[in-house]
């Protein structure tokens, strides 16, 4: 029935077995998720370190502004306290910068590098898809000729179509095989790849907070009455406020 | 009681003789009377106070507690002080000669307490009066109150509450007068005299201070209120009066600026104000900086990188995720809360407390300008109006109030700031301690926890270097997945050309142009896309391997190698050749027929002819495309695999092997191709 319009494009038989397709989808799916997570982790890590730096900078500003107030010149006790605070803040800022640099080097950079493989992977998968489309198309063409009446020209075309099909099919199968091999390997490589980064991240925290504990511990010894509970402090604040309010010049509300 | 004492005294005085002594005695008598009056009035005063505080107040329960507090103020404290005072006063009665001196001393003892306790009452008296006025406007309430008062204190009369509430004021102002009376009747060289003198002036001071205190309180409450007025309200406030005030002040200020009139230099106040400004600045800056710090902390806490675990089930990655999550939920949260409660809140309270003094200082300056102008007027004219006097007085009150209280204010604020800063430091330490504890716990479980930091850093660097190489290799692998080969459509007429080339050169040498080639040099070819060519040499005369010498069937020339793709030819022919295992020179054009073609066919293969072939000699046989043939021998007599001996249509002969193909599916026999 040569007058029936034949749609070229979809072959009748399933050229790629369902299990193979499923495996491929699964492996690629895992990698797509990993790509997303890597990207998000990198972004969040960057934002987190930026906020960390901003926090440290605003802490330095606290002591800097205090130091520049003329009150400090007149009041010796205040001056010594604010100077000590300022020194502490500046030192902490330096340590913080170091911590952030370490994180940049050992966590954010590796994340970036890992992420940069994905474009190549995605391109490779696209090409496999292209090959699959070509394969399908040519398979359909062959099937079309196979169903036609076997005249001479038809046979010739059939033969030609088969010849065209063969390299394309082999190309697809090669790509498929290669990707099915490489994708799990790449996915698995993340384990060894990232462990040093996370170790480094934890250690960086320990280093920084050790310094912070020491510096502020010393400062507390120097300045504060240690051992006051939060309730005590609240009561002290209340007391101070009442003292202020007792003055007539302070408005009561 | 008074009468009783008087009787006694008159009996005694009768026994003394002499005029001098008589007047002395009269003084003494008056003195004793005055002292007795003091005591007696104190008794009845206290009695009245107690009636008010207990009986009347308790019956006025229908009034809200706040009102009662305003009305009766600190009457209980007054009662306490005066009870003790009365008790001591009554004790002096036993010590006859000493009594007057003791009374004087008693007043001096009680001076401070009296001032403290009465000034509070007097300061709130005006408000109490206002409240009484509002009650008067409600007839029902008024009748009720009157009823209660008349039941308890009949002599209160119709003035009722106000009569009762003014009593303490009357009492405290009466003390100096009572003492004065005693003093007048005391002999100057009596030991009691100086004491009494001091007592009189002391009680006068008490009254002055009470007035001063009252005025300051009034002025302060008038001007400290930071009124939240809308623009409309502010505009509505402007009337001729306020305008004239403001313009007068402005002109005063301008005159000062121009040097036309001297400015009142008050160094003490200026220093105080300057210090206050620094204190204000300190508080404001610190508050803003802490706000910024808290903002950044908040931002820091909203990023949760530990939520993306990359599907790594164990090891340092998991350690980190747990650590980060715990820290956010505990250590940092606690830190933030403590910071808000113990640092931020106090700073907010401090900032608010600054507003009152700031307002007062502004007002003082305004009033100062008024004051200076009035001083001028006073010099010129000699007197000022009642209102102007009040304005002068307001300035003085404001000034003295600020001078009195600003130092303490400044000091309190600075002390509190110090406290806040110390708390801030402690909070940082506590945060560090908490984080460190938790982080060290995590670190102890890491594989390299025993490695010191510098060595660890080197380790990580090396590891990262290695793994980045590994990544690179992955990338390269993926990049090797090439685009699929584009099957070029054969150009019309090229099939024949392809055959010709194929027969001349063999299948392995055929290439197809993947894109249009335009030749530039004289020996370069220009080919359309899809053109089939045969490779002659894979380098040019200079040895350049990217320029190949090819044959198009008609022309020969150079084309770039990158634009050529191996033309996929029938592989089965290759297979056949491989099976045969020979690789002779394919440039054989004519077959060598065997003398007697024996049917030594090992396999009968179902083969068809792909291309038409015209026999050129009797040894060859013609083929039509699609024709089924039977291969008799896959080589010619010389063993050349390029030619095959076939039987087709009953005829036998040689045909090019490349023109044959295996049939993939059953072929119908007996069809005829149109030639």
What can be said about this structure in brief?
Chain A is mainly α and 253 residues long.
Going across the biggest sheet of chain B, name each strand in turn: 4-3-2-1-5
Low-confidence stretches of chain B: 1-5, 570-605, 664-675
Strand content of chain A is under 5%
Strand content of chain B: 5-15%
CATH architecture of the largest domain in chain B: Up-down Bundle
Keywords (chain B): Guanine-nucleotide releasing factor, Repeat, SH3 domain
GO molecular function, one term (chain B): guanyl-nucleotide exchange factor activity
Function (chain B): May act as a guanine nucleotide exchange factor (GEF).
Organism (chain B): Macaca mulatta (Rhesus macaque)
Q: How would you describe what is shown here?
A:
The complex is a heterodimer of chains A (253) and B (675). Chain A has 253 residues and is an all-alpha fold. Helices cover 85% and strands 0% of the residues of chain A. Chain B is built from 19 helices and ten strands. Chain B has a five-stranded antiparallel beta sheet, with helices on one face. In chain B, strands 9-8-7-6-10 form a five-stranded antiparallel beta sheet, with no helix packed on it. The model of chain B is unreliable at 1-5, 570-605 and 664-675 (pLDDT under 50). With 675 residues, chain B is an alpha+beta fold. Chains A and B meet through α1, α3, α4, α5 and α6 of A and α10, α13, α14, α15 and α16 of B.
Helix and strand arrangement:
The complex is a heterodimer of chains A (253) and B (675).
Chain A lengths: L17 H51 L2 H4 L1 H40 L1 H31 L4 H72 L6 H17 L7
Chain B lengths: L1 H14 L3 H41 L5 H8 L2 H18 L6 H25 L1 H12 L2 H14 L8 H5 L1 H18 L7 H33 L6 H7 L2 H18 L9 H36 L13 H14 L1 H51 L4 H59 L8 H27 L14 H12 L4 E4 L18 E6 L9 E5 L4 E5 L3 E3 L4 H10 L25 E4 L18 E6 L9 E6 L2 E6 L3 E3 L13
Antiparallel strand pairs in B: 1-2, 1-5, 2-3, 3-4, 6-7, 6-10, 7-8, 8-9
Helix pairs in contact in B: 1-2, 2-4, 2-9, 3-6, 4-5, 5-9, 5-10, 9-10, 10-16, 12-15, 13-15, 13-16, 14-15, 14-16, 15-16
